[in-house]
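Reviewers of the previous submission asked for a worked example of the structure-prediction workflow described in the proposal, so we include one complete record here. The input consisted solely of the amino acid sequence. No template or homolog information was supplied to the procedure at any stage.
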Amino acid sequence: MARILVAGHGSRGDIQPLLALALGLKEAGHDVEMAAPPDFCTWIAEQGLLAHPVGHNMRELIETQGGAIMKSRLSVLRKMLALIQDNMIRLHAALIPLAEGFDMIVASSLQLSAFSAAEYWKIPYRYLVYCPSLVPSQAHMPMIWPWPVLNKELHQLAWFFELRGWEFALGSVINRIRKDFDLPPARDLFRAFLSEQPLLAAYKELAPAAPDQHLFQVPALHLPKRETALAAELEDFLEAGEAPIYLGFGSMNDGKAAATTEALVKLAQRSKARFVLSKGWGGLGQASLPENIFLIDAVEHGLLFPRLRAVIHHGGAGTTSAAARAGVPQMVIPHLLDQNYWAHAISSRGLGPPGLPKGQLNADTLERGLQRLLRPAFQMRAQGLGRILLRQNGVAEAVAFIEQGLL
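From that input alone, the workflow returned the following C-alpha coordinates.
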Protein backbone atom coordinates (compact mmCIF):
# COMPACT_ATOMS: atom_id res chain seq x y z
CA MET A 1 0.00 0.00 0.00
CA ALA A 2 1.05 3.58 -0.64
CA ARG A 3 2.14 6.45 1.56
CA ILE A 4 -0.04 9.45 0.60
CA LEU A 5 0.16 13.09 1.66
CA VAL A 6 -3.20 14.90 1.51
CA ALA A 7 -2.63 18.66 1.58
CA GLY A 8 -5.14 21.48 1.73
CA HIS A 9 -5.32 25.14 2.63
CA GLY A 10 -8.47 27.18 3.22
CA SER A 11 -11.53 27.23 5.45
CA ARG A 12 -13.30 24.23 6.98
CA GLY A 13 -15.29 23.83 3.77
CA ASP A 14 -12.00 23.30 1.93
CA ILE A 15 -10.44 20.95 4.47
CA GLN A 16 -13.39 18.74 5.44
CA PRO A 17 -13.83 16.99 2.06
CA LEU A 18 -10.09 16.35 1.94
CA LEU A 19 -10.29 14.85 5.41
CA ALA A 20 -13.12 12.60 4.26
CA LEU A 21 -10.95 11.42 1.35
CA ALA A 22 -7.93 10.93 3.63
CA LEU A 23 -9.97 8.77 5.99
CA GLY A 24 -11.25 6.76 3.03
CA LEU A 25 -7.69 6.19 1.81
CA LYS A 26 -6.65 5.11 5.30
CA GLU A 27 -9.56 2.67 5.50
CA ALA A 28 -8.43 1.24 2.15
CA GLY A 29 -5.10 0.37 3.77
CA HIS A 30 -2.89 3.31 2.79
CA ASP A 31 -0.54 5.21 5.09
CA VAL A 32 -2.04 8.71 5.03
CA GLU A 33 -0.97 12.01 6.58
CA MET A 34 -2.41 15.50 6.13
CA ALA A 35 -0.93 18.98 5.76
CA ALA A 36 -3.38 21.70 6.75
CA PRO A 37 -3.67 25.14 8.36
CA PRO A 38 -2.61 25.04 12.02
CA ASP A 39 -6.11 25.66 13.39
CA PHE A 40 -7.42 22.43 11.83
CA CYS A 41 -4.68 20.08 12.99
CA THR A 42 -6.20 19.16 16.35
CA TRP A 43 -9.55 18.35 14.69
CA ILE A 44 -7.79 16.21 12.07
CA ALA A 45 -5.82 14.39 14.76
CA GLU A 46 -9.06 13.62 16.60
CA GLN A 47 -10.17 11.76 13.47
CA GLY A 48 -7.10 9.51 13.77
CA LEU A 49 -4.70 11.09 11.24
CA LEU A 50 -1.30 12.68 11.68
CA ALA A 51 -1.63 16.38 10.76
CA HIS A 52 1.21 18.74 9.87
CA PRO A 53 0.58 22.49 10.38
CA VAL A 54 1.32 24.41 7.17
CA GLY A 55 0.55 28.01 6.25
CA HIS A 56 -1.70 30.61 7.85
CA ASN A 57 -4.12 30.10 10.74
CA MET A 58 -7.23 30.49 8.60
CA ARG A 59 -9.82 31.41 11.21
CA GLU A 60 -7.61 34.15 12.59
CA LEU A 61 -7.02 35.40 9.04
CA ILE A 62 -10.75 35.53 8.23
CA GLU A 63 -11.66 37.15 11.56
CA THR A 64 -9.06 39.90 11.18
CA GLN A 65 -9.22 40.54 7.42
CA GLY A 66 -12.58 39.17 6.27
CA GLY A 67 -14.27 42.57 6.21
CA ALA A 68 -11.53 44.07 4.06
CA ILE A 69 -11.49 41.07 1.71
CA MET A 70 -15.26 41.20 1.07
CA LYS A 71 -15.57 44.96 0.66
CA SER A 72 -15.99 44.65 -3.13
CA ARG A 73 -15.26 42.22 -5.97
CA LEU A 74 -12.06 44.12 -6.80
CA SER A 75 -11.10 44.03 -3.14
CA VAL A 76 -11.74 40.27 -3.01
CA LEU A 77 -9.42 39.72 -5.96
CA ARG A 78 -6.69 42.10 -4.77
CA LYS A 79 -6.67 40.86 -1.16
CA MET A 80 -6.81 37.18 -2.06
CA LEU A 81 -3.92 37.51 -4.50
CA ALA A 82 -1.88 39.35 -1.88
CA LEU A 83 -2.58 36.63 0.68
CA ILE A 84 -1.77 33.87 -1.79
CA GLN A 85 1.50 35.54 -2.76
CA ASP A 86 2.44 35.98 0.90
CA ASN A 87 1.56 32.36 1.65
CA MET A 88 3.40 30.88 -1.32
CA ILE A 89 6.84 31.08 0.24
CA ARG A 90 5.80 29.43 3.49
CA LEU A 91 3.74 26.75 1.71
CA HIS A 92 6.61 25.75 -0.58
CA ALA A 93 9.14 25.93 2.24
CA ALA A 94 7.03 23.63 4.41
CA LEU A 95 5.52 21.19 1.91
CA ILE A 96 8.53 20.30 -0.25
CA PRO A 97 10.63 18.86 2.61
CA LEU A 98 7.53 17.36 4.21
CA ALA A 99 6.70 15.40 1.05
CA GLU A 100 9.93 13.38 1.17
CA GLY A 101 9.18 9.67 1.29
CA PHE A 102 5.58 9.87 0.10
CA ASP A 103 4.32 8.04 -2.98
CA MET A 104 1.69 10.63 -3.99
CA ILE A 105 0.36 14.07 -3.10
CA VAL A 106 -3.34 14.91 -3.25
CA ALA A 107 -4.13 18.62 -2.84
CA SER A 108 -6.98 21.09 -3.04
CA SER A 109 -8.07 24.72 -2.70
CA LEU A 110 -5.33 27.24 -1.81
CA GLN A 111 -2.61 24.60 -1.39
CA LEU A 112 -0.83 25.73 -4.55
CA SER A 113 2.65 24.43 -3.72
CA ALA A 114 1.79 20.73 -3.98
CA PHE A 115 2.54 20.50 -7.71
CA SER A 116 6.08 21.78 -7.06
CA ALA A 117 6.57 19.33 -4.18
CA ALA A 118 5.40 16.42 -6.35
CA GLU A 119 7.69 17.49 -9.19
CA TYR A 120 10.63 17.87 -6.81
CA TRP A 121 10.26 14.34 -5.45
CA LYS A 122 9.11 12.90 -8.81
CA ILE A 123 5.87 11.44 -7.46
CA PRO A 124 2.28 11.48 -8.80
CA TYR A 125 0.06 14.47 -7.99
CA ARG A 126 -3.69 14.91 -8.09
CA TYR A 127 -5.70 18.08 -7.49
CA LEU A 128 -9.26 18.10 -6.20
CA VAL A 129 -11.91 20.75 -6.95
CA TYR A 130 -15.38 21.03 -5.43
CA CYS A 131 -17.04 23.19 -8.08
CA PRO A 132 -16.86 23.21 -11.90
CA SER A 133 -16.49 27.01 -11.98
CA LEU A 134 -12.88 26.66 -10.82
CA VAL A 135 -11.89 24.98 -14.10
CA PRO A 136 -11.89 26.69 -17.54
CA SER A 137 -14.89 25.93 -19.75
CA GLN A 138 -17.02 27.45 -22.47
CA ALA A 139 -20.05 26.52 -20.33
CA HIS A 140 -19.61 29.08 -17.56
CA MET A 141 -17.81 32.17 -16.30
CA PRO A 142 -14.79 32.04 -13.96
CA MET A 143 -15.75 32.01 -10.30
CA ILE A 144 -14.70 35.62 -9.63
CA TRP A 145 -17.71 36.88 -11.62
CA PRO A 146 -21.16 37.15 -9.99
CA TRP A 147 -22.90 35.88 -13.15
CA PRO A 148 -22.16 32.16 -13.47
CA VAL A 149 -23.70 31.66 -16.90
CA LEU A 150 -23.92 34.24 -19.72
CA ASN A 151 -22.97 33.05 -23.20
CA LYS A 152 -20.20 31.06 -24.84
CA GLU A 153 -18.36 34.07 -26.27
CA LEU A 154 -18.25 35.94 -22.96
CA HIS A 155 -17.23 32.77 -21.14
CA GLN A 156 -14.28 32.30 -23.49
CA LEU A 157 -13.23 35.95 -23.18
CA ALA A 158 -13.49 35.91 -19.38
CA TRP A 159 -11.38 32.76 -19.09
CA PHE A 160 -8.78 34.21 -21.48
CA PHE A 161 -8.21 37.12 -19.11
CA GLU A 162 -8.56 34.94 -16.00
CA LEU A 163 -5.74 32.61 -17.00
CA ARG A 164 -3.46 35.44 -18.00
CA GLY A 165 -4.27 37.16 -14.73
CA TRP A 166 -3.06 34.12 -12.80
CA GLU A 167 0.19 34.09 -14.79
CA PHE A 168 0.73 37.82 -14.24
CA ALA A 169 -0.11 37.76 -10.53
CA LEU A 170 1.59 34.55 -9.43
CA GLY A 171 3.87 33.31 -12.21
CA SER A 172 6.99 35.26 -11.28
CA VAL A 173 6.46 34.66 -7.54
CA ILE A 174 6.13 30.90 -7.88
CA ASN A 175 8.92 30.54 -10.42
CA ARG A 176 11.34 32.44 -8.17
CA ILE A 177 10.51 29.97 -5.39
CA ARG A 178 10.84 26.99 -7.75
CA LYS A 179 14.27 28.24 -8.83
CA ASP A 180 15.43 28.01 -5.20
CA PHE A 181 14.59 24.28 -5.37
CA ASP A 182 16.28 23.85 -8.79
CA LEU A 183 12.92 23.34 -10.48
CA PRO A 184 12.27 24.69 -14.00
CA PRO A 185 9.75 27.52 -14.54
CA ALA A 186 6.10 26.46 -14.65
CA ARG A 187 4.94 27.42 -18.14
CA ASP A 188 1.19 26.88 -17.79
CA LEU A 189 0.59 27.76 -14.17
CA PHE A 190 -3.14 27.08 -13.95
CA ARG A 191 -2.80 23.66 -15.57
CA ALA A 192 0.11 22.89 -13.28
CA PHE A 193 -2.07 23.62 -10.24
CA LEU A 194 -4.86 21.39 -11.57
CA SER A 195 -2.60 18.36 -12.29
CA GLU A 196 -2.81 16.14 -15.36
CA GLN A 197 -6.15 14.66 -14.31
CA PRO A 198 -8.11 16.86 -11.87
CA LEU A 199 -10.83 15.34 -9.74
CA LEU A 200 -14.20 17.08 -9.37
CA ALA A 201 -15.98 16.05 -6.17
CA ALA A 202 -19.53 17.32 -6.66
CA TYR A 203 -22.90 15.75 -7.32
CA LYS A 204 -23.45 15.66 -11.07
CA GLU A 205 -27.14 16.25 -10.40
CA LEU A 206 -26.18 19.70 -9.06
CA ALA A 207 -22.93 20.56 -10.78
CA PRO A 208 -22.05 18.41 -13.78
CA ALA A 209 -18.63 18.79 -15.35
CA ALA A 210 -18.72 20.28 -18.84
CA PRO A 211 -17.40 18.06 -21.67
CA ASP A 212 -14.54 20.47 -22.43
CA GLN A 213 -13.22 20.35 -18.84
CA HIS A 214 -11.92 16.75 -18.98
CA LEU A 215 -12.57 16.23 -15.28
CA PHE A 216 -13.03 12.92 -13.53
CA GLN A 217 -16.18 13.46 -11.48
CA VAL A 218 -17.28 11.70 -8.31
CA PRO A 219 -20.10 12.58 -5.88
CA ALA A 220 -19.46 15.08 -3.10
CA LEU A 221 -17.25 13.88 -0.24
CA HIS A 222 -18.82 13.60 3.22
CA LEU A 223 -17.25 12.62 6.51
CA PRO A 224 -18.52 9.40 8.11
CA LYS A 225 -20.87 10.12 10.99
CA ARG A 226 -18.82 10.13 14.18
CA GLU A 227 -21.64 11.36 16.39
CA THR A 228 -25.04 9.73 16.67
CA ALA A 229 -26.94 12.48 18.48
CA LEU A 230 -27.12 16.25 18.61
CA ALA A 231 -26.52 18.24 21.80
CA ALA A 232 -29.36 17.82 24.31
CA GLU A 233 -30.47 21.47 24.24
CA LEU A 234 -30.60 21.53 20.45
CA GLU A 235 -32.47 18.23 20.46
CA ASP A 236 -35.01 19.68 22.89
CA PHE A 237 -35.54 22.70 20.61
CA LEU A 238 -36.05 20.49 17.56
CA GLU A 239 -38.61 18.36 19.42
CA ALA A 240 -40.50 21.36 20.84
CA GLY A 241 -42.27 22.38 17.63
CA GLU A 242 -42.30 22.21 13.85
CA ALA A 243 -39.06 21.66 11.98
CA PRO A 244 -36.97 24.86 12.03
CA ILE A 245 -35.10 26.68 9.27
CA TYR A 246 -31.31 26.88 9.32
CA LEU A 247 -29.57 30.25 9.04
CA GLY A 248 -25.79 30.21 8.69
CA PHE A 249 -22.93 31.58 6.60
CA GLY A 250 -20.11 29.24 7.57
CA SER A 251 -16.65 30.82 7.44
CA MET A 252 -17.88 34.02 5.81
CA ASN A 253 -17.07 37.19 7.73
CA ASP A 254 -17.75 40.50 6.00
CA GLY A 255 -17.32 42.54 9.17
CA LYS A 256 -21.08 43.20 9.37
CA ALA A 257 -22.17 40.61 11.92
CA ALA A 258 -24.31 43.06 13.91
CA ALA A 259 -26.26 44.29 10.87
CA THR A 260 -26.70 40.74 9.56
CA THR A 261 -27.90 39.51 12.94
CA GLU A 262 -30.36 42.39 13.15
CA ALA A 263 -31.85 41.43 9.76
CA LEU A 264 -32.14 37.79 10.82
CA VAL A 265 -33.78 38.73 14.11
CA LYS A 266 -36.31 40.94 12.31
CA LEU A 267 -37.09 38.05 9.97
CA ALA A 268 -37.72 35.76 12.94
CA GLN A 269 -39.91 38.34 14.66
CA ARG A 270 -42.09 38.70 11.56
CA SER A 271 -42.35 34.97 10.95
CA LYS A 272 -44.14 32.17 12.72
CA ALA A 273 -41.33 29.84 11.71
CA ARG A 274 -38.61 28.57 14.04
CA PHE A 275 -34.91 29.02 13.27
CA VAL A 276 -31.53 27.51 14.09
CA LEU A 277 -28.84 30.20 13.75
CA SER A 278 -25.20 29.20 13.36
CA LYS A 279 -22.63 31.63 14.76
CA GLY A 280 -20.06 30.75 12.10
CA TRP A 281 -16.72 32.52 11.78
CA GLY A 282 -18.57 35.81 11.36
CA GLY A 283 -19.87 35.73 14.94
CA LEU A 284 -23.59 35.94 14.16
CA GLY A 285 -26.17 35.98 16.94
CA GLN A 286 -24.38 38.25 19.41
CA ALA A 287 -27.61 40.04 20.38
CA SER A 288 -30.84 39.48 22.26
CA LEU A 289 -32.58 36.72 20.31
CA PRO A 290 -36.32 35.92 20.20
CA GLU A 291 -37.53 32.56 21.46
CA ASN A 292 -37.95 31.18 17.96
CA ILE A 293 -34.17 31.39 17.28
CA PHE A 294 -31.81 28.78 18.71
CA LEU A 295 -28.12 29.73 18.50
CA ILE A 296 -25.52 27.03 17.76
CA ASP A 297 -21.81 26.61 17.17
CA ALA A 298 -20.54 24.18 14.53
CA VAL A 299 -22.82 21.15 14.19
CA GLU A 300 -22.51 18.11 11.96
CA HIS A 301 -24.73 18.94 8.98
CA GLY A 302 -25.44 15.29 8.30
CA LEU A 303 -27.20 15.02 11.67
CA LEU A 304 -28.94 18.40 11.70
CA PHE A 305 -30.08 19.09 8.14
CA PRO A 306 -32.45 16.09 7.74
CA ARG A 307 -34.35 17.43 10.78
CA LEU A 308 -34.97 20.85 9.18
CA ARG A 309 -37.64 22.46 7.07
CA ALA A 310 -35.19 24.42 4.89
CA VAL A 311 -31.64 25.80 4.84
CA ILE A 312 -30.57 29.41 4.20
CA HIS A 313 -26.80 29.60 3.79
CA HIS A 314 -23.83 31.23 2.06
CA GLY A 315 -23.49 28.73 -0.75
CA GLY A 316 -20.32 26.88 0.14
CA ALA A 317 -19.90 23.67 -1.84
CA GLY A 318 -20.06 21.52 1.29
CA THR A 319 -23.14 23.17 2.79
CA THR A 320 -24.95 23.10 -0.56
CA SER A 321 -24.19 19.40 -1.02
CA ALA A 322 -25.16 18.55 2.57
CA ALA A 323 -28.53 20.30 2.23
CA ALA A 324 -29.20 18.60 -1.10
CA ARG A 325 -28.30 15.21 0.38
CA ALA A 326 -30.63 15.89 3.32
CA GLY A 327 -33.51 16.47 0.90
CA VAL A 328 -34.41 19.98 2.10
CA PRO A 329 -34.99 23.11 -0.01
CA GLN A 330 -32.35 25.80 0.23
CA MET A 331 -31.76 29.47 -0.49
CA VAL A 332 -28.25 30.72 -1.10
CA ILE A 333 -26.95 34.10 0.08
CA PRO A 334 -23.74 34.24 -1.99
CA HIS A 335 -20.93 36.36 -0.59
CA LEU A 336 -18.19 35.72 -3.17
CA LEU A 337 -16.54 33.41 -5.70
CA ASP A 338 -18.09 29.98 -6.43
CA GLN A 339 -21.04 30.70 -4.12
CA ASN A 340 -22.67 32.47 -7.06
CA TYR A 341 -22.38 29.25 -9.07
CA TRP A 342 -24.11 27.27 -6.32
CA ALA A 343 -26.90 29.87 -6.02
CA HIS A 344 -27.52 29.46 -9.75
CA ALA A 345 -27.33 25.65 -9.51
CA ILE A 346 -29.98 25.52 -6.77
CA SER A 347 -32.45 27.88 -8.44
CA SER A 348 -32.01 26.46 -11.96
CA ARG A 349 -32.78 22.96 -10.68
CA GLY A 350 -35.90 24.00 -8.80
CA LEU A 351 -34.47 23.29 -5.35
CA GLY A 352 -34.98 26.82 -4.07
CA PRO A 353 -35.53 30.43 -5.11
CA PRO A 354 -32.91 32.60 -6.84
CA GLY A 355 -29.95 33.51 -4.69
CA LEU A 356 -29.96 36.71 -2.65
CA PRO A 357 -26.54 38.44 -2.88
CA LYS A 358 -25.20 39.30 0.55
CA GLY A 359 -25.08 42.99 -0.32
CA GLN A 360 -28.87 42.97 -0.80
CA LEU A 361 -29.66 41.16 2.45
CA ASN A 362 -32.11 42.87 4.79
CA ALA A 363 -35.25 41.82 6.66
CA ASP A 364 -37.53 42.62 3.71
CA THR A 365 -35.53 40.73 1.06
CA LEU A 366 -35.10 37.81 3.46
CA GLU A 367 -38.82 37.69 4.16
CA ARG A 368 -39.68 37.60 0.46
CA GLY A 369 -37.06 34.93 -0.15
CA LEU A 370 -38.34 32.81 2.74
CA GLN A 371 -41.91 32.96 1.44
CA ARG A 372 -40.72 31.55 -1.88
CA LEU A 373 -38.38 29.01 -0.26
CA LEU A 374 -41.25 27.37 1.63
CA ARG A 375 -43.29 26.64 -1.50
CA PRO A 376 -44.24 22.93 -1.67
CA ALA A 377 -42.73 22.48 -5.14
CA PHE A 378 -39.22 23.16 -3.85
CA GLN A 379 -39.71 20.74 -1.00
CA MET A 380 -40.91 17.94 -3.30
CA ARG A 381 -37.96 18.33 -5.70
CA ALA A 382 -35.46 18.53 -2.84
CA GLN A 383 -36.83 15.37 -1.23
CA GLY A 384 -36.66 13.49 -4.50
CA LEU A 385 -33.07 14.54 -5.14
CA GLY A 386 -32.07 13.73 -1.57
CA ARG A 387 -33.19 10.13 -1.98
CA ILE A 388 -30.95 9.80 -5.05
CA LEU A 389 -27.90 11.41 -3.45
CA LEU A 390 -28.09 9.29 -0.30
CA ARG A 391 -27.33 6.21 -2.40
CA GLN A 392 -24.06 7.66 -3.71
CA ASN A 393 -20.61 7.19 -2.16
CA GLY A 394 -18.19 9.87 -3.33
CA VAL A 395 -15.38 8.79 -1.00
CA ALA A 396 -15.29 5.23 -2.34
CA GLU A 397 -15.20 6.47 -5.95
CA ALA A 398 -12.53 9.07 -5.15
CA VAL A 399 -10.35 6.45 -3.43
CA ALA A 400 -10.56 4.22 -6.52
CA PHE A 401 -9.57 7.15 -8.72
CA ILE A 402 -6.58 8.03 -6.53
CA GLU A 403 -5.44 4.40 -6.49
CA GLN A 404 -5.48 4.32 -10.29
CA GLY A 405 -2.95 7.16 -10.23
CA LEU A 406 -0.58 5.01 -8.18
CA LEU A 407 -0.34 2.23 -10.77
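The chain is about 45% helix and 15% strand. We consider this example representative of the routine output the project will generate in years two and three.
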